[in-house]
Amino acid sequence: MQTLAILISGNGSNLQSIIDTIGADRIDVVISNNPNAYGLTRARKHKIKTVTINHKLYDSRDHFDQTVHKCIESFDSDLIILAGFMRILGASFVQKYKNKILNIHPSLLPKYKGLDTYQRAIDNDEYEHGVSIHVVTPELDGGQVLMQGRYYLEDGDSIETLQARGLKLEHQMYPELIQMLMEGKLQIGKVCEPIEFTL
Ligand code: GRF
């Protein structure tokens, strides 16, 4: 049975959608760098093991990454799912798990890598915005895009309205893609075009 390690930093709504669709028994551990992340509470409610690795207690990124690595290694998970994990993992960590780490990002990559994607889309008068699920490589938000979902901007849109539309997509896209990978219907490295997801 394929299993997951899920890394979070905050609310954990994506984590919740994965628990609800794929099942808590498929999740080896939820790791948070933020001791106050609500996602930890969500995981505990489902009796999933949780580990807090507070980045503020580490003197370097490497040291933090090594601790995360040791933790994940002890579970032998098949996939590492970044779900609102707000730390950048260093190249040596990422290379240890080549083609095994996924991230969900609120933009139509390669557009709008990094933070504040909703605000930047509004500022640039974009007519569309969306969500991408990509393989994690040492380049920030730069790995192969496996799935994308898009929506269109409307007059009066704000960060909040875009985020609500984006999260609705995220909560369906992430479990669906993870399921496809776990069932062997999709293999990382072999996909050419991103799957277009529509609600
Ligand atoms: C999501 O919008 C995700 O795309 C981004 O961080 C947010 C996390 O939300 N990387 P949640 O913690 O899953 O509710």
Q: How would you summarize this macromolecular structure in one to three sentences?
A:
By secondary structure, this protein is of the alpha/beta class.
Based on secondary structure, the structural category is alpha/beta
**β content, as a range?**
15-25%
What's the helical proportion of residues? 25-40%
Order of helices and strands: EHEHEHEHEHEEHE
What is the terminal-to-terminal distance?
28 Å
Largest sheet: 8 strands, mixed
Number of helices: 6
Taking all Cα atoms into account, the compactness measure Rg is 16 Å
Mean pLDDT across the residues is 96
Strand elements, count: 8
Bound molecules: 5-O-phosphono-beta-D-ribofuranosylamine
Q: Which residues sit in consecutive blocks of at least 5 with pLDDT less than 50?
A: none
Shape assignment = globular
Record the strand order, biggest sheet: 3-2-1-4-5-6-7-8
Tell me what the structure shows.
The protein is of the alpha/beta class and 199 residues long. The chain is built from six helices and eight strands. It has an eight-stranded mixed beta sheet with strand order 3-2-1-4-5-6-7-8, sandwiched between helices. Strand 1, helix 1 and strand 2 form a beta-alpha-beta unit. It is globular, with a radius of gyration of 16 Å. The two termini are 28 Å apart. Bound molecules: 5-O-phosphono-beta-D-ribofuranosylamine (GRF).
SSE arrangement:
Blueprint: E1 4-8, H1 13-22, E2 27-32, H2 38-45, E3 50-52, H3 61-73, E4 79-82, H4 91-96, E5 101-105, H5 117-123, E6 128-135, E7 145-152, H6 159-182, E8 195-197
Parallel strand pairs: 1-2, 1-4, 2-3, 4-5, 7-8
Antiparallel strand pairs: 5-6, 6-7
The structure holds 5-O-phosphono-beta-D-ribofuranosylamine.
